[in-house]
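Example 3.2
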Amino acid sequence: MTKKQLFIHGIIFILYAVLSIIVYIVAERGIHFMLAWNAFLAFIPLVLIYLFDRYKNQKYLNWFLLLLWLFFYPNSLYLITDLIYLNQDSFMQDQGLYQGLLYLKDFKVYLGFFHIFLGAMYGVLTALVSFKYFYKELKEPRLKMYFYIGIPILVSIAIYIGRFLRFNSWDIFSPYKIIVELINDFNGFTIFIFYCLPLFSIFYLVFIYCKRKNLYNSIFFNKR
């Protein structure tokens, strides 16, 4: 990643952070303020990629940066789970069987909707940039396969721990407590989450394959 690319991503983050503060003031909901922090955590992996790219010749530093990236990377996709807060807003009102639905025109509600949605998209953007960077860095097909299998599993576990067990990033220094809580909480829903979240890597793999084979024009636009 070049300095210019990092600067552009930094501007995007700052704009979203400023928007978060404005929406928080207008909508008066704490989640909008917290989204600025979540976006900052999602921006950190991009900074680490920039440092990794800049100091490629320093092996031990690269390993350290890679470990830091693994530590912060789940925060990118964690932003997607913030979409659950949309359920707390009222977008419509059921007026009965014969009158149907009344779609409410609440400025604050829709302002919050677009803010949370943009946050999720920002998380996807940062995740794609990170994922694509290390995909290109890996040269051996076997390592790429491990990357596609291992990283999504780690991310899904991290997101589950953060979202549903309510642990924070710094709680990694209490691994025993996290493991015990995860084992005690393990159920069918846990398996469901661990299954759904890794689908991100599968979709991205299909995206890369279609892009390389130039299949988009032939599939969607009937061009050869």
